Each structure stands twice: as C-alpha cells, then as structure tokens.
Amino acid sequence: MAKTRNPNSVRSARGILAAIAIGAFLIVDGVLVAAALSNGSSMPQSTATPISSNLLSTPGGEPDAVDLPPATRLLAAFDATSAWRSETGTCPKADALVEHSADGGNTWDGFDLGAQGGISAAVSLSILGDSRSAFLIAQTKQDCSPTWVGTTTEGTQWTAFPDRVATVWRIEPGNRAIVVSPAGVRQAPCPEIVGLAAVDATSAATLCSDGSLHRTTDTGVTWEASTPVRSAAAIGTGTEGYLVAALSDDPACVGVVVSAIAATGSADPMTVSRCVATGNESTDIAISGNSTATWLWAGTTVVRSLDGGSTWK
What we know:
single chain, mainly beta, Neuraminidase, four-stranded antiparallel β-sheet
C-alpha cells in the first residue's frame, strides 16, 4: 500500500513537446497507436502487504439518490508492475500532471505537462502498446480545446497531435450530456455523465450522475442500461468489459466494492471483490484492470490484485 508523496518532489518532464525528437516518436508511435484501445502526487517507497477481500454485502438496487460529481481521477494499468495515473481538474487553472509507476505502485514519477507544455485538465488517460507508452486527452491552457498528448519514453518526452483527438472516446467537460466517440458526437444516455470507460473503438460504458450505468457497442448510437451498482463511484476498463468501484456500506469494512460488467451479453454486474479494505471512505477513486492485474486508487491508497480480485496488496 502506498501513500502520496509531497507534490513538490514531483519532477517535471524533460523536453516536453517541441524539444523531443519527433521523427523517432512517430516511428514507434505509429505502431503503438494502432494497438491502443482506450482509457492513471507521488509516493514514497513502502512495503506492500496483502489485503484480504472480505466477503460482505453485495452491491445492488436502485441508483443513488444523490448526484455523483464528475470523476476526479484517471488510472490506466498496463501490467502487475506498470500503471499510469492523473487527476482531472478545471481548465485552464489545473495543470495536467501525469504519473507513472514501474514498481507496482510503491513509487511514482510525475511529469508536469502544464508547467512546461501548456497542457491543462486531463480528460482521459490510456495505455499504448508497452509499459513505456501512454497518451492522454487533455485541454490546452490557451483556449481549453482538446488535444492528444503522448509519450513512448516513460514520460520523459511528450508530443502533441491534436488531430488524433477525433480517434479517442472522451467526455466533453463543458457538456456532459454528450459523449464524443471515434465516430463523432453522440447523445449521452443520461443528462450528465461523470465517468467513461472504453474497450475499443465501438464499445464503451458510462457512469451517470444519478448512479446509473449504460453501455454501447455501436459507438454510442444506442445505449443499454445495466443493472445499477449501489454507491457506485468510478468506472474503468476490465478484462472483458468494465469495472465499477463502489463505496462499501458495511460497517465491518471501510473500503471499496469492485464489480464487473461484461462488454456484451448480460448487463448484470458480477461482484469481483465484496470489499477491498482501503482504510478510507474517499470518493476520489479510479480503477483499471486487465488479465494481468487490477489496480485501485482510492484516497491515498493504491492497491493491486493479481488474482482476479481474491486478494489485494
């Protein structure tokens, strides 16, 4: 379990944007982008200890009555040791600070794209083809227009390709009643979406401010409502679909309940972990997983499961 390091210790990215060797980036990046599907304050070293997944109450029922705020965190897991993360914020005030961990979340290196690259307010964060490569959709400080910013060097060098924005699923921060898909602007399945996860160019799922969940397999032309997950707080990609992180309402476990929803087929969530004991009740949550590992970032806690949610460390 890792804790957040003093942000003053976060190191800035070197040679951001204009100072990078663009030719070399493009050669590598052309291959990686083709493999990319979709949608990751630093921490000191610590020793990870296993956290049992307590079998408590299973979430379910009607969506929450209270409005959920827009997601404040982004997380993109590559494997058991490598992941990327960022916070969202408001343009142009917030800098886009992206962090990468190569040691299972024990330590993180930060790259301030706002201070040296004029990039603000991350909107989505995605893995490219290997542990050294990632990209985000963020907003420029100049006019808050969306742009695509990527790295193939673990974040030491970044470059922007604004024309690639159209190829990526994203939320439009100024109008959460719409979803932008690779096929164009679509009407959202609810008045306000607060979270979005995409598994490929045609399939994605949303978490709405009323707690409802919806998924699409046709670039957002149509949406199917999934069975709600009580106290849902975040949505991310999983092995064969989507992961939903919800606050545990059982007093015996302070933490997060993790559920999975398939990309196609049954719309009923399946409980992955009845409770991951994070030790805090923060609603600042992000989750991301694949066949290798599932990562959960809740409050100051970052934990991973390498066995499908049975145990966490």
